[in-house]
């Protein structure tokens, strides 16, 4: 087992639906540590960089439109195997297929408007967190 960090975003639909507290609460109840937390609005350039792995997908432009449509809340979360633990907590991408008890399973009926994003690997975290945080915003505790 290893202590890992992961990036968790509450997307514009999650903010609009007043689910910031619910997401943070689940992270804390699980026993994970929040090392950095902020609200921001991604511009197009940052959003395209953030989702660069999806640039050839048919939904890429719509995804960039969506993630830049309103504020998001970004957090860096740390804990034992945090990458896979948080992915399990958020559930499958498509809210209609996500298990009840997961964030998407409990709050989303859509494949794009799915409330949250979480890094799918340590390598993805290392790339993604730099789009939204600088290293001096991370508080190790
Ligand atoms: P996320 O975990 O942030 O990673 C990429 C995002 O693209 C995903 O959540 C969804 O918001 C969106 N997405 C993935 N697949 C599709 C799809 N088939 N159609 C529309 N949006 C999608």
Q: Strands, helices and their partners?
A:
Elements: E1 3-10, H1 12-16, H2 20-30, E2 33-40, H3 44-50, H4 60-67, E3 72-80, H5 82-90, H6 103-107, E4 116-118, H7 122-132
This protein binds adenosine-3',5'-cyclic-monophosphate (CMP).
Residues 54, 59, 63, 93, 111-112, 114, 117 line the site of adenosine-3',5'-cyclic-monophosphate.
Describe this structure in words.
It contains seven helices and four strands, in the order βααβααβααβα. It is an alpha+beta fold and 141 residues long. It has a single domain (3-135), classed as Nucleoside diphosphate kinase-like domain (Alpha-Beta Plaits, 2-Layer Sandwich). The longest helix has 11 residues, at 20-30. The radius of gyration is 14 Å and the shape is globular. Adenosine-3',5'-cyclic-monophosphate binds next to loops.
Q: How many individual β-strands?
A: 4
The secondary-structure element order is EHHEHHEHHEH
* Poorly predicted ranges: none
Summarize the biggest pleated sheet. Answer: 4 strands, antiparallel
* Tally of helical segments: 7
Mean pLDDT: 98
State the domain count.
1
Relative helix content: 25-40%
Overall morphology = globular
CATH topology: Alpha-Beta Plaits
């Amino acid at each position: 087992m290893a202590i890992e960090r992961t990036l968790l975003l509450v997307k514009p639909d999650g903010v609009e639906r007043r689910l910031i507290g619910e997401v943070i609460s689940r992270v804390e109840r699980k026993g994970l540590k929040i090392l950095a937390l902020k609200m921001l609005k991604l511009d197009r350039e940052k959003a395209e960089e953030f989702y660069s792995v999806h640039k050839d997908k048919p939904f890429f432009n719509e995804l960039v439109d969506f993630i830049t449509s309103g504020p998001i809340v970004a957090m860096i979360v740390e804990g034992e195997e945090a990458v896979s633990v948080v992915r399990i907590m958020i559930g499958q991408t498509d809210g209609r297929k996500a298990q009840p008890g997961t964030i998407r399973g409990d709050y989303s009926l859509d494949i794009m408007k799915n409330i949250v994003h979480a890094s799918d690997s340590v390598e993805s975290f290392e790339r993604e967190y730099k789009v939204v945080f600088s290293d001096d915003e991370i508080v190790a505790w």
